[in-house]
Amino acid sequence: MTDELQIHRVVTSGVLGAGRPEYPPGGVPIENNVFVVGDDSSALIIDAAHDAEAVAAAVGARDPLGILLTHGHEDHVNAAIALADRLDTHLYLHPADLFLWEETHGVDRLPDFELADGAVFSVGGHELATLHTPGHTPGSVSFYAGSIATLFSGDTLFEGGPGATRWEYSDFAQIIESINTRLLTLPAVTTVHPGHGAATTVGAESPQIAAWLERGW
Prior knowledge:
Largest sheet: 6 strands, mixed
Protein name: MBL fold metallo-hydrolase
Strand order of the largest sheet: 1-2-3-4-5-6
Domain Metallo-beta-lactamase: 31-196
CATH class: Alpha Beta
Number of domains: 1
CATH topology: Metallo-beta-lactamase, Chain A
Structural class: alpha/beta
Distance between the termini: 40 Å
Pfam families: Lactamase_B
InterPro entries: MBL_Glyoxalase_II (IPR051453), Metallo-B-lactamas (IPR001279), RibonucZ/Hydroxyglut_hydro (IPR036866)
Shape: globular
């Protein structure tokens, strides 16, 4: 194994839902976390939000091994095609979220490969394992780098609770099950990097699950 992985958080800004009737006129401003994970020679990119050039700049001259999408929501994939073209690399998405991808990008250009539970990606002598964690969306996944006790949770787990489940395809009971059985079973010291906002740890979030259940979100 090589040295510890470098994790570069790129905070990108955009507007969610512009022109859609279910959102306010002009949409909703939003910031996303995009993570570039690697060493001095290669990198994996987790999510592709808003600003392909900013993410490409963080990758730099390193070999881009792929763009791993935590789920298909617009704000996590809207820069995916531009970024894949800019870096000349592949896109990975769980097939259960393809319908969400198509809402943003249509059907003419689809992700290159399907993510599956247990799929492993190697970078810098370390491995990231794919964990299918549905609930926020049917195809939501998280990526776990066990060698450095780090989890990239997308919109499944945040500091203070689970991701939103307000859509007809979402399921609060399912996201709780995903968090409880797939994420909170990881070591307490595991750092959790979500798709928005600050990092947390498994140990900090585990005691709160009863409160989340009581409040219902």
